[in-house]
Design brief:
GO molecular function: 3-isopropylmalate dehydratase activity; 4 iron, 4 sulfur cluster binding; metal ion binding
Shape: globular
Mean pLDDT: 91
Pfam families: Aconitase, Aconitase_C
CATH topology of the largest domain: Aconitase, domain 3
Distance between the termini: 28 Å
Largest sheet: 7 strands, mixed
Strand order of the largest sheet: 23-22-21-20-24-25-26
Structural class: alpha/beta
Organism: Tulasnella calospora MUT 4182
Number of helices: 28
Low-confidence stretches: 485-538, 746-753, 756-765
Function: Catalyzes the isomerization between 2-isopropylmalate and 3-isopropylmalate, via the formation of 2-isopropylmaleate.
Bound molecules: 3-isopropylmalic acid, iron/sulfur cluster
Cofactor: [4Fe-4S] cluster
CATH superfamily of the largest domain: Aconitase, domain 3
Length: 765
């Protein structure tokens, strides 16, 4: 709601203020959530929680579900049903479970025969489900993508998914305001992916920790919505909670006419409001970063963290020049994993595979820019025989649009594979995976070890750079392959008889066939969850924990490392202890135990983990990381800093993240290495040592500490605030009527929010 605050505010401040349902004295706020996207990986346990507690989905009109991570991307010509089509049993079970859940809870769902199916972060904006000024969440870290519209959009874990489904709210502490201002003119051949890689290279993967980033400056203002989305998407790789861009005429033009965007008078009313969503003159940011556009060249990663960025004209960095021993160790390890020698020119690195797609770069503009590079090669040019390259449109509608423009023909003629929509090789939860040691030029967002397949080696880059790598067989400076003056853009399109159609051609109701029946085949047996896992995991206590601590000195321990993708296909919260740090604990192929610390006594019985490296738990929102630590027996992790979503997920499950300065972590690391117990006391807020040294104090947010000490369940607490939520919903309907599911019903009728709450019925789009 508009408040009486008169001080200048940032865009983040404004959206935050407009969504506070209730605020506690310690600053913890109950935030209303306008839009909730759901996919098959992070939702089964949440739906099961609702089922067990007998709860409905509060706002089906604000919830949209699709399948993306597990779906195979080969032709669906012979698709009959998910059960028949998805061969891998666990992937199939997750997709079936979602189909089961959307029916049971009455949610709108884009299944595999629906052209609107695709990666959650592509379909939300495409449909106009994502709008300026909203709060938007999804059980997925790249929800930050939607911030490109001037919304507060962030990833959450499964417990929070359940919380939003049940209450349409979340308990949140406000973050810091961070400005990334990019001024100047980008060099031809440099696009928004290069910019965000460059930014992460500058500020690091923990640079945005605790902050919401606003991207501003002349470069950002000139970008299309798609370019803005690619940048906001990777805010999570910079450690930030969210990224955003103030909405402007480019935003409004993108949204106008989208199926779920407001219409008629409400469109005008919405635009009036949206125009107020900009940072006021004189508003203060906690952190400011200023980047000169001219400093950015086509960028590419060399290592296994998104911050391992170098210009394509550069060389693989030399660990010997790094003075910090933890960083040097990480660099040496990364080079060994990547099979690279220090000082190798980046352009001499050959590739085996090329992947163009993902929620970062699977949109129509990305495919056009890749096609333009293919067209810059002499007619008849093809990718070298040793390279396999695939184009995976981010949604069925992107695919349809690209085909209408003839882009598929450009790619296929040059030897690329043309696939169906899905997450594909971005994380290989489906058949698209790298083999060990295969090297991939990828337009995705994460280059973590094993991310695209066990032992696979990923180099992140823009779609144009990836297309150039495909055509040449090695990493190459895209500037060598740009079309000449007057040949770029439309001229290139003509050259290949590409018909660049309006982005809206493929969104009107007329071209959308009614969704076919989903061929639903019933729920899998595996949906049965143990009763203790289903009620939501937050009603778990933490008081004092004493035990063996496992020492670790790896920076940026990402959640892919804590638990790799193949273990995310579970429908349960339990039984994941064996999967913990799988890649480090098992020899690839034989699966024999390695000498990793958790395999060695006494650490195989560790109850605590001490990590001296920063940013523990960064990356994906998978709550499975917390579940696997707990299942192994570890209920407290001590580190200098944590990935934000991991931290929240941990607290929700009774796993305590303890933040201590690196010097203190180092002392505890030595205790752990000497086999000494540690004792973590949440009540007294101290870590006790058993070598005669004084205990070390730490801090935890008072509200979270209170919940953990008393075993309080977030959903239960929020349900007690129902009156506040009802009041908020009434005000919301009055002020922003288009958020109540306008356009969801055929004929434009509005769905009555109160009715929706009482009865879970499928919304008619
Ligand atoms: C599966 C999901 C939890 C995960 C995420 O949160 O990012 C995935 O999308 C990823 O990219 O690793
Ligand atoms: S990052 Fe990759 S796996 Fe995650 S949502 Fe995006 S495309 Fe899917």
């Amino acid at each position: 709601m508009p408040t009486a605050v008169s001080q200048p505010r940032t865009l983040y401040d404004k959206i935050w203020d407009d969504h506070v349902v209730h605020q506690q004295e310690d600053g913890t706020a109950l935030l209303y959530i306008d839009r909730h996207l759901v996919h098959e990986v992070t939702s089964p346990q949440a739906f099961e929680g609702l089922r067990t507690a007998g709860r409905a989905v509060r706002r089906p009109d604000c919830t949209l579900a699709t399948v993306d991570h597990n779906v195979p991307t080969f032709s669906r010509k012979n698709f009959k049903s998910v059960t028949d089509f998805i061969k891998e049993p666990d992937s199939r079970a997750q997709c079936e479970a979602l189909e089961d859940n959307v029916k049971e809870f009455g949610l709108t769902y884009f299944g595999m025969t629906d052209r609107r199916q695709g990666i959650v972060h592509i379909i939300g904006p495409e449909q106009g489900f994502t709008l300026p000024g909203i709060t938007c969440v999804c059980g997925d870290s790249h929800t930050s993508t939607h911030g490109a519209f001037g919304s507060l959009a962030f990833g959450i874990g499964t417990s929070q998914v359940e919380h939003v489904l049940a209450t349409q709210t979340l308990l949140q502490k406000k973050g810091m305001n961070m400005l990334i201002n990019i001024e100047g003119t980008l060099v031809p051949g440099v696009n928004s992916k290069d910019v965000i890689l460059h930014v992460i290279g500058v500020i690091g993967t923990a640079g945005g920790t605790g902050s919401v980033i606003e991207y501003a400056g002349s470069v950002v203002r000139a970008w299309t919505m798609e370019e803005r989305m690619s940048v906001c998407n990777m805010s999570i790789e910079a450690g930030a909670r969210a990224g955003m861009v103030a909405p402007d005429e480019i935003t409004f033009a993108y949204l106008k006419g989208r199926p779920l965007a407001p219409k008629g008078e409400e469109w005008d009313q919405a635009v009036e409001y949206w125009k107020t969503l900009r940072t006021d003159e004189g508003a203060k940011f906690d952190i400011e970063v200023h980047i000169k556009a001219e400093d950015i060249s086509p960028s590419v990663t060399w290592g296994t963290s998104p911050q391992d960025v170098v210009s394509i004209t550069g060389k693989v960095p030399d660990p010997a020049l790094e003075s910090d021993p933890i960083k040097r160790g990480a660099m040496e390890h990364a080079l060994e994993y990547m099979g690279l020698e220090a000082n190798t020119p980046m352009e001499s690195i050959t590739v085996d595979k090329v992947f163009i797609g993902s929620c970062t770069n699977g949109r129509i503009g990305d495919l056009r820019s890749a096609a333009n590079i293919v067209l810059s090669f002499p007619p008849g040019s093809r990718i070298p025989d040793h390279v396999q390259a695939m184009i995976v449109p981010g949604s069925g509608l992107v695919k349809q649009q690209a085909e209408a423009e003839g882009l598929d023909a450009v790619f296929k003629r040059a030897g690329f594979e043309w696939r169906e929509a899905g997450c594909s090789m971005c994380l290989g939860m489906n058949p698209d995976q790298l083999k060990p040691k295969e090297r991939c030029a990828s337009t995705s967002n994460r280059n973590f070890e094993g991310r695209q397949g066990a032992g696979g080696r990923t180099h992140l880059m823009s779609p144009a750079m990836a297309a150039a790598a495909a055509m040449t067989g090695h990493l190459t400076d895209v500037r060598k392959h740009l079309l000449g003056e007057g040949e770029a853009g439309d001229a290139a399109a003509q050259k290949a008889q590409i018909k660049v159609t309006s982005a809206f051609d493929y969104l009107t109701d007329e071209v959308l066939p009614p969704p076919k029946p989903q061929g639903y085949a019933g729920a899998a047996d595996e949906t049965d969850l143990p009763a203790n896992a289903a009620a939501g995991s937050s009603a778990i206590k933490f008081t004092v924990l004493r035990g063996i601590a496992a020492p670790l000195s790896i920076p940026n321990v990402d959640t892919d490392m804590i638990i790799p993708k193949q273990f995310l296909k579970t429908l349960k919260r339990t039984g994941l202890g064996n999967a913990l740090f799988w890649t480090l604990r098992r020899v690839p192929g034989t699966e024999e135990a390695t000498d990793f610390i958790l395999n060695k006594p006494p650490y195989d019985k560790a109850k605590i983990m001490v990590c001296t490296g920063e940013n523990f738990g960064c990356g994906s929102s998978r709550e499975h990381a917390a579940w696997s630590l707990l299942d192994f027996g570890i209920a407290a992790v001590i580190a200098p800093s944590f990935g934000e979503i991991f931290k929240t997920n941990s607290m929700q499950n009774g796993l305590l993240p303890v933040v201590l300065p690196q010097s203190e972590c180092q002392k505890l690391y030595e205790d752990a290495t000497n086999g000494l117990d540690l004792e973590v006391d949440l009540d007294k807020l101290e870590v006790r040592r058993f070598n005669g040294e004084p205990s070390i104090p730490f801090e935890v947010e008072p509200f979270r500490r209170h919940c953990l000490l008393n075993g309080l369940d977030d959903i239960g607490l929020t349900m007690q605030k129902d009156d506040f939520i009802v009041d908020f919903e009434q005000k919301r309907s009055d002020l922003w009527p288009w958020l109540d599911g306008f356009g969801y019903k055929k004929g434009g009728g509005r769905i009555d929010a109160k009715e929706v709450k009482k009865k879970a019925t499928k919304m008619d789009w």
